[in-house]
């Protein structure tokens, strides 16, 4: 159950980062440093989501 809450939290964070990246990209002068950091963080969050998803599916099988 704990990993389900963590997974849900990470998925929400991933969506928030995605939205922040879109919003920053729309600006006339986007902050490239901020975009790079957000994209890297989004990648790390995605990797953690994948890792948790794989470990939870292996426990159910």
Task: Map the helices and strands.
Layout: H1 2-26, H2 32-60
Summarize the structure in words.
The chain has 61 residues and is mainly α. The protein has helices at 2-26, 32-60. Helix 1 (2-26) runs antiparallel to helix 2. The protein is elongated. The two termini are 16 Å apart. The model has no long low-confidence stretch (mean pLDDT 93).
Main sheet characteristics: none
The average pLDDT value, as a whole number, equals 93
Helix coverage percent of residues? Answer: over 70%
The arrangement of helices and strands along the chain is: HH
Q: Categorize the overall geometry.
A: elongated
Total domain count:
1
Radius of gyration: 14 Å
Distance between the termini: 16 Å
SS content category = mainly alpha
Number of helices: 2
Strand fraction: under 5%
The number of E-state strands comes to: 0
Low-confidence stretches: none
Can you give me a brief rundown of this structure?
By secondary structure, this protein is an all-alpha fold.
List keywords for this structure.
61 residues
């Amino acid at each position: 159950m704990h990993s389900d809450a963590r997974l849900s939290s990470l998925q929400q964070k991933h969506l928030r980062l995605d939205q922040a990246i879109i919003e920053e990209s729309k600006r006339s002068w986007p902050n490239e440093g901020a975009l790079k950091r957000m994209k890297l963080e989004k990648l790390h969050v995605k990797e953690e989501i994948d890792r948790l998803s794989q470990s939870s599916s292996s426990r159910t099988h």
